[in-house]
Structure formats: C-alpha cells, structure tokens
Amino acid sequence: MKKFTLLKSMLFVALLCVMTLPQAFAQISDGNPTFRTIRTGNRPQEGTYGIYLGVSASQMQAISDNKLEWSGIPIINFKYFSSENLEWRLSFVANNTTNKNLKGTVEYQDEKMDVREKARDGGIYLTPGIAYHFNSKNILDVYVGGALPFGYGYDNYVYKIDKKNNGTSKRSSFDLGLEGFIGIQCFVADLPLALGFEYGFSGMIHFGQKYKNTVLDSDGNEQVFYTTERPNGTDDLVEYTKLSNKNGRFGSDFRVTISYYFNK
Fold this sequence. Notes:
Layout: H1 2-19, E1 49-56, H2 57-64, E2 76-81, E3 86-108, E4 111-133, E5 140-147, E6 150-161, E7 165-187, E8 193-207, E9 211-216, E10 222-227, E11 246-262
Antiparallel strand pairs: 1-2, 1-11, 2-3, 3-4, 4-5, 4-6, 5-7, 6-7, 7-8, 7-9, 8-11, 9-10
C-alpha cells in the first residue's frame, strides 16, 4: 500500500511539473487560451511535441512485487506529430538496484557458515513507436499504434563463504518485444493537456537467460557451470557445462495516460 501511495504522489508531482513548464516552450499554435476561441481543448498539430506519462496494470504489479526488470510500457515517453494524424513515440527507461555487504549465516550439512554477498541487477531499454489518429475533432481522439521495445538486462551476484570459498553468478540478456494498442484521449478545457486510456497486447523475448557460475574453493580450484536461475544455496538446480536458454511472455495490458503538448 505504501508503494502504491508513493507512486500516486510521484504522478501528481509529475503532473504539476508539466503544467508549470517554463514559458520557453509555447503552447500549441492553434491553442489560444481564451474560452471564446477554443472551448474544447488544444489538439496537437503538425510539429507538436509532447510528454506522455502513464502507468499500466503490469507496472503496478511489478512495483508491488518489487521487480525492476522490463514490465510493459515505460512510465515516461516523448511524442512528436509529423502530421495531424501521425504520431511518433520514443521512450527510455533504465533501472538498477544494488545490495552491498549483505551478511548472514547459513546452515549446510549441520555446519554453520558465515556468508557475505553483493548483488546488482537492472536493465536499460529503448522503445520506439508510432500511432495513427483517426479524426481531427478537438474533444475526443481515437488512435491505434505499435511499438518495438528492446534493451539489455543484467543480474550479478558475488558471495564469500567463511572467507574461504568465493563465487560469482552472472546473467546478461538481450530483450526484444512487440506491442500493439488502441487508445482514446480527451483534451482538457483550453489547456494543452489530454487524459486517456490505452488497451493492447505486448510480448517480450529474453535471449541469454542463463547464469554463468564460477566457484573457487579454499584450495584454489575453479569450477564453472551454468544454470537457468541464480543459485542461492538451497535450490537443487541442474548444473550445465553448456547452456542456451531463452524465454518470453505475452499478454494484454491497459494503462491510464496524461499527455502535455507544446511547440518549440
């Protein structure tokens, strides 16, 4: 519940920020902020830029599960209208979490051992996309589009047991996805703002889903093997001398959106 409240606060602050951007950016050229001229909002025209904020159902689930890997649509996007009907999107998202100097004691074969660990995981993703807007009305806007997310994910883990046995477990993967969506947005009064809703399907394939494990014992002997998951000392994982592995997911998603439009 605390994470959900924090996310709502972040979105509220972001909305205030985009509503108070410096006057260096002009409003949309057709948007005269007087109710006598435009009563139903400022519709983007050719050459209009935009900042898009949105939270999807899969992102909410990922946040509640404390998962930082790619999950659906990035929260912040940029838009550009090359014509009144054609919109180009570009998104960038990066995350990293690091846990250092984790200390603990484990029991293995009736023997207690001191363990020190360091872990780091995250990813960097880029999502280009395109959307086509059907009508030119200044109230409601219906559109369809698609996107091609891709990026790099990693998971590095280092441990030391009783200051004698050392080991590492590392994973790096190239991720490639595909998205399709249909959306509707409503322009807010005379402001260059739009509130919307999008629904669609998305999928992602993770290439290189394997962990390379290197173990060095107290005698200096090194052992290298591969697993499909990161070993944690309790799971009985299959150890491979060679391994090629990939996995993917596909499903539907929906999100609520807020867009702010401006011209240079």
